[in-house]
């Protein structure tokens, strides 16, 4: 029993290490994309790029349906990977159409529309590759995820900045992102995860009549996660919408530059929250109550420590950091930088509570919690927009992050108690 537990902990550490390396390297390369924008263009152009991401994120996440989390938590193999893949491909294609429709209905400029549509193509292809990441993660091959993220991040950073330097055209540089994503996906990722996908897997999507029932069931099962994901995306992008409306595109560009360094913390937390996903799901099947709570407590504590370190660094050296990686114009908002770091710390803890709720397969609860989080952030940002400034917007995000964290904790404790009571009565 002890050897099995030791093996499980070793596998978890290795899985986390690989995901951490992959996420950190990918976050660093994507930050170099933003740095290239800052150095080679102007805050307005940075704002357009950030706005394109903000428009695409909720649509792409809604259409992705959170299928990766469902695949990882599918400990008893209810659906084949081919069925997960088929649903993801069709929903990704649908996301491109929806984004294009939004650009036609909204009053975006032609330049903004081009950038938004190109980014939708990038995100749709990334969404398909993400299912392969879920497959690797389920089979404890997080090293393959790390290599893929490393290669894709490095190539996209190189091509994007090279094209931006040569052409000074944001839309052309975004086409470079699409090209690098397709190259790594087709020639590196798909050949390596196909052997884990099962004998019936086919990229041609040969549908049998009975498979459509499975597709429908998967859609209904994962829809709450898709809604939760879009609400989470809207929640994280709300400040961008409010800043673009209440201030201007220049302020949005500065806000994007302030927010992105904190993504390094998000990548560490993302790895910590994703690595134990299969293990937590197994614990719910084998009724390991004590191990489930202990593991989540350790993860939440790690998230809190990461948030504290982030906040202290931003408090003491925020001005120097912003001046070094951007310029003095961005460094004037060092107080906002610190407040955003504190808010990020609470979101790190929230991520682990959410991982526990996903492992318990309480997908509807996640949807409800994200809805409440969205409403809370919307209310605080509406208050901040009355006297709009970046520092007030940052304070609104901090207050929303604190309340969302408390709600997630309460929901996790409730469902864990229900789980215990259910097993005791059986």
Average residue pLDDT: 79
Structural class: mainly alpha
N-to-C terminal Cα separation, in Å? 25 Å
**Total individual domains:** 1
Query: What is the helix/strand order?
Result: HHHHHHHHHHHHHHHH
Enumerate the spans where pLDDT stays under 50 for 5 or more consecutive residues. Answer: 1-5
Shape, per Cα inertia axes: globular
Radius of gyration: 21 Å
Helix content: over 70%
Largest sheet: none
How many helices? The count is 16
- Beta strand %: under 5%
Count of extended strands: 0
Provide a brief overview of the structure:
By secondary structure, the protein is mainly α. Helix content is 86%, strand content 0%. Helix 1 runs antiparallel to helix 10, helix 12 packs antiparallel against helix 14 and helix 14 packs parallel to helix 16.
Explain the overall architecture.
With 426 residues, the protein is mainly alpha-helical. It has one domain. It has 16 helices and no strands. Helix 5 (110-138) packs parallel to helix 7. The protein is globular, with a radius of gyration of 21 Å. Mean pLDDT is 79; it is low at 1-5.
Secondary structure elements and pairings:
Blueprint: H1 2-40, H2 43-64, H3 67-73, H4 81-105, H5 110-138, H6 142-167, H7 170-193, H8 211-246, H9 249-259, H10 263-274, H11 277-286, H12 289-325, H13 328-331, H14 334-359, H15 363-385, H16 390-425
């Amino acid at each position: 029993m002890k050897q099995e537990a030791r093996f499980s902990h070793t596998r978890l550490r290795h899985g986390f290490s690989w995901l951490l390396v992959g996420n950190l390297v990918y976050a660093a390369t994507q930050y170099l994309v933003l740095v290239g924008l800052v150095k080679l263009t102007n805050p307005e152009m940075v704002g357009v790029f950030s706005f394109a991401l903000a428009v695409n994120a909720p649509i792409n996440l809604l259409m992705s349906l959170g299928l990766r989390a469902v695949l990882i938590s599918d400990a008893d193999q209810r659906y084949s990977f081919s069925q997960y893949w088929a649903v993801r491909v069709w929903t990704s294609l649908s996301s491109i159409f929806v984004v294009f429709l939004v650009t036609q209905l909204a009053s975006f400029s032609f330049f903004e529309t081009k950038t938004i549509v190109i980014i939708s193509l990038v995100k749709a292809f990334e969404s398909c590759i993400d299912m392969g990441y879920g497959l690797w993660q389920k089979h404890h091959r997080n090293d393959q995820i790390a290599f893929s993220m490393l290669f894709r991040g490095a190539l996209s950073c190189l091509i994007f900045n090279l094209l931006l330097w040569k052409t000074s055209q944001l839309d052309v540089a975004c086409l470079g992102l699409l090209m690098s994503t397709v190259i790594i996906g087709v020639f590196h990722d798909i050949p390596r995860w196909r052997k884990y996908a099962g004998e019936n897997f086919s990229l041609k999507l040969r549908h049998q009549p009975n498979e459509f029932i499975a597709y429908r069931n998967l859609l209904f099962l994962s829809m709450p996660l898709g809604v939760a994901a879009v609400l989470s995306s809207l929640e994280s992008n709300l400040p961008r919408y409010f800043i673009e409306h209440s201030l201007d595109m220049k302020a949005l560009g500065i806000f994007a530059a302030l927010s992105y360094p904190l993504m390094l913390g998000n990548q560490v937390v993302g790895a910590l929250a994703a690595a134990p996903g299969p293990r937590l799901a197994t614990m719910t099947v084998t009724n390991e109550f004590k191990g489930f709570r202990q593991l989540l407590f350790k993860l939440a504590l790690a998230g809190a420590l990461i948030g504290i370190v982030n906040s202290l660094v931003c408090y003491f050296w925020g001005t120097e950091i912003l001046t070094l990686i951007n310029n003095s114009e961005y460094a004037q908002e060092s107080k906002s930088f610190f407040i955003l770091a504190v808010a990020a710390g609470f979101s790190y803890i929230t991520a682990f509570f959410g991982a526990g709720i996903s492992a318990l397969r309480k997908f509807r609860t996640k949807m409800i919690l994200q809805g409440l989080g969205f409403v809370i952030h919307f209310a605080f940002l509406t208050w901040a927009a009355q006297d709009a400034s970046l520092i007030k917007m940052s304070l609104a995000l901090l207050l929303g992050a604190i309340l969302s964290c408390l709600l997630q904790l309460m929901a996790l404790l409730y469902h864990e108690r229900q789980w215990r009571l259910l097993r005791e009565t059986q």
